[in-house]
Design goal:
Blueprint: H1 2-18, H2 26-34, E1 44-53, E2 59-70, E3 76-84, E4 92-96, E5 104-109, E6 114-117, H3 121-124, H4 135-139, H5 141-144, E7 146-156, E8 159-168, E9 177-183, E10 189-195, E11 201-213, E12 216-226, E13 232-242
Antiparallel strand pairs: 1-2, 1-13, 2-3, 3-4, 4-5, 5-6, 7-8, 8-9, 9-10, 10-11, 11-12, 12-13
């Protein structure tokens, strides 16, 4: 009897082990994908540039440096300083994500020697520095605070991706839904599509290149295409490194006008 019991226990244990770890939930997959975005770096410094292309093919470049610090909840503080061209030199942007309350965003304009807070739904949905990113996109609140639906996996570049539909909970959400294709092996969102209240596609962001930094994947090149006006924003991260000396005071409105 003891032998049969021991054999049954061993067989059950081995069967459970063979199933591996339980699959990640949609919320866990989304949270992991947000960690790979360049703004989400934990104690990280980057140098990068934006290439803005209008429908006629005219290009503009925006060179900037950014610092990011992530807390234990995965929420982040981000400081961005633009360096060129001359029209945007010295412009600085600060964002602090909050749990269960509105995120904070500030913009410093050297021409006026003034720092102002970004507020209100219409301003949050306006363009960030002429790019196809809105201020709301930088918060990622429409993805962070949403109800999730998991669709059938799809392969992108030969890799299985979880196809997740995020439906924002906030009344002031920028989108009616956001669809993400998240690579299952490393949590990178290879494609993100954003839709308006009528279900019409607004824009699509595609990850084009990924680097591993301190064991974590980081998207270092992406392309965002605006389906409404044909505008394109390419983000290229030229340098990325750890910076563990960033204290909280570094990420304050007072630090913008340095």
């Amino acid at each position: 009897m003891k032998t049969r019991t021991a054999t049954f226990f061993l067989a059950t244990t081995l069967s459970a082990l063979s199933l591996g770890a339980p699959p990640e939930s949609a919320a866990e997959l989304v949270a992991r994908s947000l960690r790979s975005e360049f703004f989400a770096g934990g104690s990280t410094r980057i140098r990068a540039h934006l290439v803005l292309t209008d429908k006629e093919g005219k290009k503009q470049d925006r060179l900037f440096s950014a610092w990011g610090k992530r807390d234990g909840l995965g929420l982040r503080r981000t400081l961005v300083r633009f360096e060129s061209p001359a029209a945007v030199e010295g412009v600085a942007f600060l964002m602090t994500q909050r749990e269960h309350e509105a995120d904070e965003q500030y913009l410093y304009l050297p021409k006026f020697k003034a720092t102002r807070r970004i507020g209100g739904a219409s301003e949050r949905q306006s363009s960030f520095m002429g790019s196809d990113f809105s201020y709301a996109d930088l918060e990622r609140k429409d993805v962070r605070e949403a109800a999730y639906e998991v669709l059938a996996d799809e392969a992108i570049g030969g890799k299985p991706c979880a196809h997740i539909v995020a439906k924002p909970r906030g009344a002031s959400a920028a989108y009616s839904r956001v669809e993400l294709w998240i690579r299952r092996d490393d949590g990178v969102a290879l494609r993100i599509a954003m839709f308006d209240s009528d279900g019409k596609l607004i824009k699509t962001t595609t990850a084009r290149r990924v680097r591993v930094v301190d064991g974590e994947p980081v998207i270092v090149e992406s392309r965002t295409e605006n389906a409404l006006n044909g505008h394109v924003t390419e983000l290229v991260v030229d340098e990325v490194s750890r910076d563990d000396n960033l204290d909280d005071a570094f990420f304050s409105p007072a630090s913008l006008a340095r």
